[in-house]
Design brief:
mainly beta, 53 residues
Length: 53
């Protein structure tokens, strides 16, 4: 569970091209679940899904 704009004390910037779910746009402060796809040089994409409820 997370909030758009923060993740583990760090900024989480979510870009449209990296979002996984079609029910967009998400807005700052919205509760979501997410995971980050890591590549050789760090995070490559952030996949976001709206939180249930």
């Amino acid at each position: 569970m997370g909030v758009i704009g923060q993740a583990g004390g760090q900024d989480l910037w979510v870009f449209a091209e990296s979002l996984a779910e079609p029910e967009l746009p998400l807005v700052a402060g919205e509760r979501v679940s997410y995971y980050v796809v890591f590549g050789p040089w760090g995070p490559e994409a952030t996949r976001v899904r709206r939180a249930a409820g």
